[in-house]
Amino acid sequence: MDDYDYIFKIILIGNSGVGKTCLINRYIDNIYNQGYISTIGVDFKIKTVELDNRKIKLQIWDTAGQERFRTITSSYYRGADAIIVVFDLTDKDSFNELNSWLLEIERHTKDVFKIVLGNKVDMKERILIEDKAIDKFLEENKMDKEYFAKVSAKKDVLVKEMFEKISRKLMEINKTETRNKQVDDRYVNLGENNNWCCGG
């Protein structure tokens, strides 16, 4: 028997060097490695957490940000429950590339929960992305501002909180979908049992 109530697949995408691996390491193992080693292809880690008296198994996938790996990593979008798009608050290119990452999501999956995180908020003197630019991006792409955060893998700012917030949202989505399916199944069963026929 499975020892969890939910299992969710969460993928982190974004330009190379924005801190995707560091965010995962901070959340999973509560560590931060100062040295930067670029992810090759795809890697993933598993964390089981308990939230609201429910045990949740999270598969958190780390993807390479370099252009040459995008065709390799695209297959890993399938079956994702949530996709976190990460940018670097000190790097304008990583912010400007967000739209292309959203297009990648649309190309490979449908009806997935999307979140944006701005990493490296600890580097206050080097931040280049203004709040109004972030607000405009979220509004134009119809993304819930409640699920945006400025985080820091290095200083452990809002990392655990955001993963838990995402997990709670996924539980909520899962419950809604389950309820809808149960309603659909009831109607199907009624139709089968009573041989209903709708004339046009």
TrEMBL record:
InterPro entries linked: P-loop_NTPase, Rab, Small_GTP-bd, Small_GTPase
Nucleotide-binding recorded as keyword: yes
Ranges in a coiled coil: none
Keywords annotated in UniProt: GTP-binding, Nucleotide-binding
Protein name: GTP-binding protein YPT1
Pfam families in the record: Ras
GO molecular function: GTP binding; GTPase activity
Record's keyword annotation contains Transcription regulation: no
